[in-house]
């Protein structure tokens, strides 16, 4: 059968209003357009639904059987469509976001707070784990999108950079480089380092920078969390190269942060599956984070206030 939703709605309105003219007025259609829609519906169904006279329009037996069922079906359809419109306009639903521990602690609180204020009917579920698992979660659809340290170019992923996060030297106050307002990368040559391990998104970037500057730095300890790294440095195990967002230092750690020159940074960004449409709620949250770029960059700067 070849009929349209418009024809069904027109028939219902004619039956309820008892005439073509009144139905046309309600629907914003001319009387000929209303008559044509009903006639096309009857032809598609191969049954007469209305008896027309010069004075009235009356439902046939087939029309009387069809009308209540059709009305219920159209009402149910309108309810479904209205819910979909509200979901898109009000960002209703649940969004799953993946983020590494450092980014979860430094950036996600501001993002979650902004989301609650802008979209109170949106539920944000944070998946807090190491970078490798976050990238996998985005690729296999376990989360809607991720907040990550710049990954290597990956097929099937779309990326949006939201801020730059500089690398800093972290050392004890009694270290010779602590007396300087800034240190150069060359001055790290031969220094013993305490670094995050390979599960961190930052570690491959730090290794690349050390190689690019031709530095030979033995790594004494490789750890899974920045707080552990800082406590090792405070104990005199070595110095560290740390992203700014990993700071401030934990309580009781008497440490200093010094800029490393020339400036080297990591990029923090959002990743999502390419050519896959996010839910309206997830798309709204994605765009909100992009709007917050300046605010999030400021958070990266403020993280260093307690480190100097």
From TrEMBL:
It comes from the Bacteria. It comes from Chromobacterium amazonense. Signal peptide: none annotated. Belongs to the LysR transcriptional regulatory family. Keywords: DNA-binding, Transcription, Transcription regulation. This is LysR family transcriptional regulator. Pfam families: HTH_1, LysR_substrate. Residues 3-60 form the HTH lysR-type domain.
């Amino acid at each position: 059968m070849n009929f349209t939703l418009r024809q069904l709605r027109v028939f219902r309105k004619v039956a309820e209003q008892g005439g073509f003219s009144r139905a046309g007025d309600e629907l914003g259609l001319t009387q000929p357009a209303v008559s044509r829609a009903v006639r096309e519906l009857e032809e598609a169904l191969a049954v007469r639904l209305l008896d027309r006279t010069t004075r009235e329009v009356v439902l046939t037996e087939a029309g009387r059987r069809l009308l209540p069922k059709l009305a219920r079906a159209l009402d149910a359809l309108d309810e479904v469509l209205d819910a979909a419109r509200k979901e898109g306009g009000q960002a209703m639903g649940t969004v799953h976001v993946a983020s590494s521990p450092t980014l979860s602690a430094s950036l996600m609180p501001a993002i979650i707070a902004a989301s609650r204020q802008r979209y109170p009917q949106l539920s944000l579920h944070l998946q807090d784990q190491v970078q490798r698992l976050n990238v996998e979660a985005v690729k296999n659809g376990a989360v809607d999108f991720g907040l990550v340290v710049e990954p290597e170019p990956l097929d099937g992923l779309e990326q949006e950079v939201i801020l730059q996060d500089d690398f800093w030297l972290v050392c004890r106050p009694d270290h010779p480089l602590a007396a300087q307002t800034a240190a150069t990368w060359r001055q790290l040559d031969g220094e013993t380092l305490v670094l995050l391990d390979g599960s961190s998104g930052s570690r491959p970037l730090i290794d690349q920078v050390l190689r690019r500057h031709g530095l030979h730095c033995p790594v004494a300890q490789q750890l899974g969390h920045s707080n552990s790294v800082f406590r090792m440095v405070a104990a005199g195990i070595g110095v560290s190269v740390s992203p700014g967002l990993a700071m401030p230092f934990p309580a009781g750690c008497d440490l200093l942060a010094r800029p490393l020159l020339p400036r080297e940074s990591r990029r923090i960004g959002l990743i999502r599956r390419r050519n896959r449409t996010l839910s309206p709620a997830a798309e709204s949250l994605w765009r909100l984070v992009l709007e917050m770029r300046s605010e999030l960059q400021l958070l990266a700067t403020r993280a260093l206030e307690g480190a100097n």
